[in-house]
Write a structure and sequence with these properties.
Layout (H helix, E strand, L loop, with lengths): L4 E8 L8 E7 L6 H11 L3 E8 L2 E7 L4 E2 L4 H12 L9 E5 L2 E8 L2 E7 L4 E2 L6 H5 L5 E4 L4 E4 L3 H6 L4 H5 L6 E6 L7 E7 L4 E4 L6 H12 L3 E6 L5 E8 L2 E6 L1 E9 L2
Parallel strand pairs: 2-3, 4-6, 11-12, 13-15
Antiparallel strand pairs: 1-2, 1-18, 3-4, 4-5, 6-7, 7-8, 8-17, 9-10, 10-11, 12-13, 13-14, 15-16, 16-17
Length: 265
């Protein structure tokens, strides 16, 4: 039998179970090959599974959807940091440092919330692609491209919530996924969003931390605010605090462990 590996399932960007975005966290004593990690990601069948390997100055961290490895993931990073502190693998006053394909990402635990330091990836205006309105289920008023994703602003929160996208068409548009957003009308929030990534094996992601690396600078410029609260209006829903600071964005949220076990494969 293979060595048993600690495995957790964590709901991220929520303070209660069965909300936010679930991620699996697998703790490895040493690096494993990408093919094996992809198989585990497919087996977990969550939007992301994160794999941690300890090193002298932190942890190596990689993320896999059921279909592919990704360069940046917020909710599975939040889940990984949460597990390290909750299981006492890291002291509560020690930062979690992750070496990733997007550079070093640092998380700290402050007042019961996890603050993650991520790169800012603001979208740049672009021309609408043919068939965009049909793919998204509505006509945006602003379209752009960011480092990883395509991006569209709509006129209202109600339009965002009502969109019925054609996932097959969205997968053909290119990019990792598609962020749609509007200014919030629900009290307590500054903006709302949804995220579609069928090309990466996730039709609609419940709560997407990395998308807020685009959303934060976009709305900071329009609302004149550096600190904001976003709501991702998926079926499960999730709340993400954001703070812009130059070429970095702090993503702020909570997490809840819902499952702890061992991977035997």
């Amino acid at each position: 039998m293979s060595t048993a590996l600690p495995l957790y399932q964590v709901d991220s960007f929520t303070d209660r179970p069965f909300a936010g975005n679930p991620a699996a966290v697998c703790l490895l004593p040493e690096a494993r090959d990408a093919g094996w990690m992809q198989q585990v990601g497919a087996e977990m069948n969550l939007s992301e599974t994160s794999f941690l390997v300890p090193r002298h100055d932190g942890f190596d961290l990689r993320w896999f959807t059921p279909a592919t490895e990704v360069d940046l993931c917020g909710h599975a990073t939040l889940a990984a940091a949460h597990v390290l502190w909750e299981t006492k693998r890291l002291a509560a006053d020690s930062p979690a440092r992750f070496h990733t394909r997007s550079g070093v990402l640092t998380c700290v635990l402050r007042d019961g919330r996890i603050e993650m330091d991520f790169p800012s990836t603001p979208p740049v205006a672009s021309s609408p692609q043919p068939g965009l309105a049909e793919a998204l289920g509505g006509t945006p008023r602003w379209v752009g491209k960011a480092r990883y994703d395509l991006f569209a602003e709509f006129e209202s929160e109600s339009v965002i919530r009502a969109l019925k996208p054609d996932f097959k068409r969205i997968a053909e548009l290119g990019g990792r996924g598609f962020i749609v957003t509007a200014q919030a009308t629900t009290p307590g929030f500054d903006f709302v969003s949804r995220f579609f990534a069928p090309a990466a094996g996730v039709d609609e992601d419940p709560v997407t931390g990395s998308a807020h690396c685009c959303l934060a600078p976009f709305w900071a410029a329009r609302l004149g605010k550096q600190e904001m609260i976003g709501y991702q209006a998926s079926r499960r829903g999730g709340v993400i605090g954001v703070r812009t600071s130059g070429d970095r964005v702090q993503l702020i949220g909570k997490a809840v462990t819902v499952l702890a076990g061992e991977l035997l494969a």
